[in-house]
Design brief:
heterodimer; A: alpha+beta; Alpha-Beta Plaits; five-stranded antiparallel beta sheet; 16% helix; globular; B: mainly alpha; 2 strands; 64% helix
């Protein structure tokens, strides 16, 4: 089980992805995008799953990061739309 | 996840300190920083309106944008992006400005006024919080001004370049501009001191994402209070600064550049809170985002400047109380605030997802 953070172009896209993940019984929650990932102030979805489930993120997903736990979390980019 | 984000607290504390310092150096009382007032002063200096008491090229605005721009470049975070309903953002920016000028201050000055003991700002904070709460209800149900897109680098540099141009012009040919001889526009800290302080504040605001709307919004939407600590830090430092310098004056009456027209202070800032949630940030945040390449925020800043011009050309702005008059929001201003609230309601309703999407 890994932790992931998905970022989106809009808050609405984050809501939709949160719903899609919840429908797959994946534990997910919406939160402000961590500062380390972006200087803008969008909404991201953080979730725990066996794999990143990028297919559930919708077309307005910007990127997906795998979270490496530790004293200070690190984020590894595993999917980017651009 | 409730841990304190120290960069936000430090940024907030330094903004508070900068506000106290700028007032001590000559800025109007309880107006160390005010994005709405300072954009209005710049609009006046450029003859976009003719209110003789509020005309000055405020270097704080130039410094905030350039500070953010430089920091974003240094940190590799400059991104030219835009295209998210720019015309809607322009008009929202204008109405946010009209709401702020009814109260006589942006959300940042509201916090600074609170730190000076001005209880009119507490009434405004209630309106501001209600406005954010209403905006958050639409956000939760899928309100969206649609996504932005990556644009050419030049598009992202428009506001920083304009600010640099304004800086060069005001230093080289000051006679181009109008400068108030009385009123708030005639009170200012030394130009380069204010510019330097604002450069630092702009850079820190870029690092911390400091935002007066974001703290309350994130608290309501996610139970995340990180940005709110910045808001609290500004208040705390300004309060202590005012207590030390003897400028703390608790009450409604006798407050500098303020009035006690409670209903319209509340409704003006309700409009600001609601509009700012739809825009994704307070006026300070719009300047910082524009500095790091967001052309939607640049358009919003242009809207705010236009709103300031409208506010003074059509007599919409609040009138500060004086020894012989109570001041308040004139009838035209009240009508404009109501039209603004109707406009943000319409924007909120018309940008909800279609049933098929939601």
């Amino acid at each position: 089980m890994n932790d992931y953070i998905a970022t989106f172009h809009t808050h609405l896209a984050a809501i939709m992805a949160h719903r899609a993940l919840s429908a797959l019984n994946i534990s997910a929650r919406m939160m402000p995008v961590p500062r380390a990932l972006s200087s803008s102030c969008g909404t991201c979805v953080r979730y725990s799953a066996e794999d990143a489930n990028t297919q559930a993120m919708g077309e307005d997903c910007e990127s997906v990061f795998m979270v490496h736990p530790g004293k200070k979390e690190e984020y590894e980019l595993i999917y980017s739309q651009e | 996840m409730k841990k304190v984000n120290w960069i936000v607290v430090i940024a907030g504390a330094l903004v508070g300190l900068a506000a106290v310092l700028l007032t001590a150096l000559g800025n109007p009382a309880n107006m160390g920083f005010c994005i709405a007032c300072f954009l209005r002063d710049i609009a006046g200096a450029c003859s976009l309106h003719g209110a003789a008491k509020v005309q000055y090229v405020r270097p704080e605005i130039i410094g905030l944008v350039l500070g953010s721009f430089i920091m974003a470049l240094v940190k590799g975070e400059f991104r030219a992006k835009g295209g998210s309903s720019p015309a809607t953002r322009f008009v929202l920016g204008a109405f946010v400005m009209i709401g702020a000028l009814a109260f006589l201050g942006c959300p940042l000055r509201m916090v600074i006024r609170l730190g000076g003991g001005d209880l009119n700002a507490l009434v405004a904070l209630i309106g501001f919080t209600i406005g954010i709460f209403i905006g958050v209800q639409f956000m939760k149900r899928g309100f969206s001004l649609r996504r932005n897109y990556t644009l050419g680098v030049t598009e992202g540099t428009i506001l920083p370049v304009l600010m640099l141009g304004l800086l060069i012009l005001v230093v080289a040919v000051p006679s181009l501009f109008k400068f108030s001889e009385a009123g708030p526009g005639s009170k200012f800290a030394p130009f380069f001191a204010a510019l330097g302080i604002a450069l630092v504040v702009g850079a820190l605001a870029q690092r911390s994402r400091l935002c007066m709307v974001g703290g309350i919004r994130d608290g309501m939407m996610f139970g995340d209070f990180k940005l709110l600590y910045g808001f609290v830090a500004i208040f705390a430092v300004v309060l202590v600064g005012n207590l030390i310098t003897g400028h703390f004056n608790l009450g409604f009456a006798g407050q500098p550049v303020a009035h006690s027209d409670h209903v319209w202070n509340l409704l003006g800032m309700l409009l600001v809170g609601w509009g700012s949630v739809l825009l994704g940030g307070c006026p300070l945040r719009q300047l910082i985002l524009a500095g790091e390449g967001n052309s939607d925020s640049t358009v919003t800043v242009f809207g705010m400047i236009a709103g300031a011009a409208f506010a003074h050309n059509f007599g919409l702005a609040g009138v500060a109380a004086s020894a012989d008059a109570a001041g308040g929001v004139p009838t035209a201003g009240r009508i404009a605030v109501v039209i603004g609230i109707v406009f943000v309601l319409a924007v909120s309703l018309l940008n909800m997802p279609k049933k098929a999407d939601a």
